Amino acid sequence: MTTRPDLSGLIKSYDVRGIVGDTLTVDVARAIGAAFADRVVIPDGETEVVIGRDMRDSGPSLVAAVADGLRDRGVDVIDIGMCSTDGLYHASGALERPGVMVTASHNPAAYNGMKMCRRLARAVGENTGLGDVRETAAELLADGIPVAAERGTLVRRDMLAEYGAYLRSLVDLSEVRPLTVVVDAANAMAGHTVPAVLGTDAGLPELPLTIIPLYFELDGSFPNHEANPLDPANLVDLQAAVREHGADIGLAFDGDADRCFAVDERGEVVPASAITALVGLRESAREIAEGRTPTVIHNLISSRAVPEQLAAAGAVPVRSRVGHSYIKAEMARLDAVFGGEHSAHFYFRDFYFADSGMLAALHVLAALGEQPGTLSELLESYSPYAASGEINSTVEDVPAAIARVRATFEGDGVEVDDMDGLTFSHWSSEPRWWFNVRPSNTEPLLRLNVEAADADQMEQVRDAVLGVIRQA
């Protein structure tokens, strides 16, 4: 028997992510496709898988390899071509098929990967099948892929227009006031989806939007900047263009366009928590109007303003760990109408409990266009507190650093919980502050998020905690 390769660095907790030609080859991709068939698709009683890809140059060969692996095991394949990750989720939901999205999201050009789901876009993570896929893919690489008596078929289908029409059916922009919108696609998949959903490229009616495109040309080498809007450097061009054109709003999408970030008319970045509150309140109002009590999920790093405002509006806010697999599971379990994360992943019950950057963008555009004020005026009440954003610290001994933080800050009216890392809260009395420290799953890092009632208090707590974490 050939030695089985170690795929733990490639097939991670939530997805597949590696360097093309190094950790991720066509042979590995074919084995992953066959393993997905053996460990998820066939045991679920499925016979067909939908597959899509982003704009990276390695995408076509990797899609072909994954499809070959699935077909080797007797599974039929529907190839929908280039799409955003939420476009793949839509196909999984609309066609009621499991899916594979070939993408490396916001990673640099040398990378590619895969995101997998069961039918109706249900996530496949470490404990819901991906660990089994990793194990079986290693076996198949070592021992070979047995070919089924009847190999699966391959058909191609374009679903972009159906995706756009479905999103528009969830949020109606036809009657909003005219808006000027700058969109930075970062040469990634929003350059494919925005003209179809917000424009007329897929045959949908014209909306009262003037779209000013930045970097819509699909180019997996990312010639202008990385498709990672979490890095402020990648928002500079969008901010400048919004101010230059006097636009109402700017939108930035990541590589596979499942996340959406916004900047206001001044070019100021809108916190993801403000979007969570805005969209959560919109979805909650619709539920309440239909006689239901809405549940909204937010991760534990979201601003305290999110649960406060949702509860005041009659919704039930539920706190979750960070990570899409946790939020998607909680949303399905509780039939939550919406979920939001600090990383700008936004999840919708009406979108198969999956995340969609485009659907979040539609909600923000609708909220802006349904009233006369600016975006900064609209969102002012959703960001009443001061937040640090996520700060990473490299530490030699992560458990020791966490122990120092606990020893320093525990007590004196501070509540501590360990849902995800450690959260220390002094929110029930003055001065109001909280912070969370979480270890990275893959690096010797501690991630810190701080929020307080005002900027001075936030900075004091931030600096005190960092001093303890980075203590030599």
TrEMBL record:
<dbReference type="InterPro" id="IPR005844">
    <property type="entry name" value="A-D-PHexomutase_a/b/a-I"/>
</dbReference>
<protein>
    <submittedName>
        <fullName>Phosphomannomutase/phosphoglucomutase</fullName>
    </submittedName>
</protein>
<feature type="domain" description="Alpha-D-phosphohexomutase alpha/beta/alpha">
    <location>
        <begin position="12"/>
        <end position="119"/>
    </location>
</feature>
<dbReference type="InterPro" id="IPR005843">
    <property type="entry name" value="A-D-PHexomutase_C"/>
</dbReference>
<feature type="domain" description="Alpha-D-phosphohexomutase C-terminal">
    <location>
        <begin position="390"/>
        <end position="466"/>
    </location>
</feature>
<dbReference type="Pfam" id="PF02878">
    <property type="entry name" value="PGM_PMM_I"/>
</dbReference>
<dbReference type="Pfam" id="PF00408">
    <property type="entry name" value="PGM_PMM_IV"/>
</dbReference>
<dbReference type="Pfam" id="PF02879">
    <property type="entry name" value="PGM_PMM_II"/>
</dbReference>
<dbReference type="InterPro" id="IPR016055">
    <property type="entry name" value="A-D-PHexomutase_a/b/a-I/II/III"/>
</dbReference>
<keyword id="KW-0479">Metal-binding</keyword>
<dbReference type="InterPro" id="IPR016066">
    <property type="entry name" value="A-D-PHexomutase_CS"/>
</dbReference>
<dbReference type="InterPro" id="IPR005845">
    <property type="entry name" value="A-D-PHexomutase_a/b/a-II"/>
</dbReference>
<feature type="domain" description="Alpha-D-phosphohexomutase alpha/beta/alpha">
    <location>
        <begin position="291"/>
        <end position="384"/>
    </location>
</feature>
<dbReference type="GO" id="GO:0005975">
    <property type="term" value="P:carbohydrate metabolic process"/>
</dbReference>
<keyword id="KW-0597">Phosphoprotein</keyword>
<keyword id="KW-0460">Magnesium</keyword>
<comment type="similarity">
    <text>Belongs to the phosphohexose mutase family.</text>
</comment>
<dbReference type="GO" id="GO:0016868">
    <property type="term" value="F:intramolecular phosphotransferase activity"/>
</dbReference>
<dbReference type="InterPro" id="IPR036900">
    <property type="entry name" value="A-D-PHexomutase_C_sf"/>
</dbReference>
<dbReference type="InterPro" id="IPR005846">
    <property type="entry name" value="A-D-PHexomutase_a/b/a-III"/>
</dbReference>
<dbReference type="GO" id="GO:0000287">
    <property type="term" value="F:magnesium ion binding"/>
</dbReference>
<keyword id="KW-0413">Isomerase</keyword>
<feature type="domain" description="Alpha-D-phosphohexomutase alpha/beta/alpha">
    <location>
        <begin position="162"/>
        <end position="267"/>
    </location>
</feature>
<dbReference type="InterPro" id="IPR005841">
    <property type="entry name" value="Alpha-D-phosphohexomutase_SF"/>
</dbReference>
<dbReference type="Pfam" id="PF02880">
    <property type="entry name" value="PGM_PMM_III"/>
</dbReference>
